[in-house]
């Protein structure tokens, strides 16, 4: 069993530079190399952490010291970069959405299995301590039987985005959280969405129906003046509300409102530590390529529903 993992970060822009920072701080990870088409940007990051820099993907992947990579480039590049990384036997953490569409996702899963390499998808909210606390409340029966989960993920348009809309970039986080909370796949999806200022959709309301009359509702947009990230889980005994940003939770029942305390931690730190540890222990990560595929399937069903103006079953159209 290896004790440390040598990791390269591909794409050191808005989010990739955070990956580089965290990997450089993790005890069991060794930030080894960074790669970006912007030579000045990548050289600055490489100098900051004392690692190798590359402007060509192939050259980084040929570095045999690099055992794993995190892919933090635009969505439309994920598929080809991941395929090349698998070709060189690298373990992969790819930011969400895993790839542009479900066909690419299915092929990537097959390649990962064929090569015997690890594939993890960057659904960072799974590692939010607040989400873990809410899941614990559900498991412990504090909320009673859960019937509804409602998420609101809104704010102004992020300039870093240019190749996907708000559904695959933003709402996809909450699709994954709904699956995590209900521990099952939705049986149907209904959505309304549109684009008011951008090429792709920039606002969406999505209803996920689960067996057992459970419902998930996701609102996402790039129109709201300030950033809001909230999750409300309604059970038959109590309601839990989470602020994703502050990680604060409020529990309310018929008698009282309680604000439990828990240690606040950086979700990215926990996520990248899990990626590193899964490689060391040679096990599946807590968020797999299969999770990435399922969230993409929901995203595509939502987009299809909005354009067709009808409910879409996950295995067909109503």
Comma- or semicolon-separated keywords:
single chain; 318 residues; alpha/beta; Rossmann fold; Dihydrodipicolinate Reductase, domain 2; 2 domains; 10-stranded mixed beta sheet; 6-stranded parallel beta sheet; 9 helices; 16 strands; 29% strand
Explain this structure.
- It contains nine helices and 16 strands.
- It has two domains: about 5-125 and about 270-285, Rossmann fold, CATH 3.40.50.720; about 125-265 and about 300-315, Dihydrodipicolinate Reductase, domain 2 (2-Layer Sandwich).
- The chain is α/β, with parallel strands linked by helices and about 325 residues long.
- The radius of gyration is 20 Å and the shape is globular.
- A ten-stranded mixed beta sheet has the order 14-13-12-11-7-10-9-8-15-16.
- Helix 1 packs across helix 8 (about 265-280) and helix 4 (about 75-85) packs parallel to helix 5.
Q: Tell me the CATH architecture of the largest domain.
A: 2-Layer Sandwich
For CATH, the homologous superfamily of the largest domain is named as: Dihydrodipicolinate Reductase, domain 2
Strands of the widest sheet, in order across it, are 14-13-12-11-7-10-9-8-15-16
Shape: globular
Poorly predicted residue ranges: none
Radius of gyration: 20 Å
Oligomer class = single chain
């Amino acid at each position: 069993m290896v004790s440390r993992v040598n990791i390269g970060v591909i794409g050191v822009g808005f989010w990739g530079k955070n990956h580089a920072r965290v990997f450089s701080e993790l005890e069991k990870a060794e930030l080894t190399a960074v790669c970006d088409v912007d030579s000045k940007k990548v050289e600055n990051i490489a100098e900051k952490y004392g690692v190798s820099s590359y402007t060509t993907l192939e050259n980084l992947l040929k570095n045999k010291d690099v055992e794993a990579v995190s892919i933090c480039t635009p969505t439309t590049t994920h598929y080809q970069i991941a395929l090349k990384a698998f070709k060189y036997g690298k373990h992969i953490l790819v930011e969400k959405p895993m790839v542009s569409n479900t066909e690419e996702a299915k092929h990537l899963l097959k390649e990962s299995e064929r090569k015997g390499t690890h594939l993890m998808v960057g659904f960072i909210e799974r590692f939010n301590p607040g989400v873990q606390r809410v899941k614990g409340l559900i498991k412990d029966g504090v909320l009673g039987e859960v019937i509804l989960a409602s998420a609101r993920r809104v704010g102004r348009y992020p300039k870093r985005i240019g190749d996907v809309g708000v559904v695959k970039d933003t709402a996809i986080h909450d699709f994954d959280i709904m699956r995590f909370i209900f521990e099952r796949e939705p049986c149907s999806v209904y959505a309304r969405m549109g684009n008011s200022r951008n090429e792709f959709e920039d606002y969406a309301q999505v209803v996920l129906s689960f067996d057992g009359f459970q419902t998930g509702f996701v609102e996402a947009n790039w129109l709201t003046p300030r950033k809001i990230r909230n999750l409300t889980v309604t059970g038959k005994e109590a309601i839990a509300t989470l602020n994703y940003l502050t990680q604060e939770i409020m529990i309310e029942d018929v008698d009282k409102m309680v604000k439990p305390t828990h240690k606040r931690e950086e979700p990215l730190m926990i996520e990248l530590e899990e990626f590193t540890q899964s490689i060391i222990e040679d096990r599946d990560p807590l968020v797999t390529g299969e999770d990435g595929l399922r969230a993409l399937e929901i995203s595509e069903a939502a987009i299809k529903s909005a354009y067709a103006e009808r409910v879409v079953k996950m295995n067909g159209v109503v």
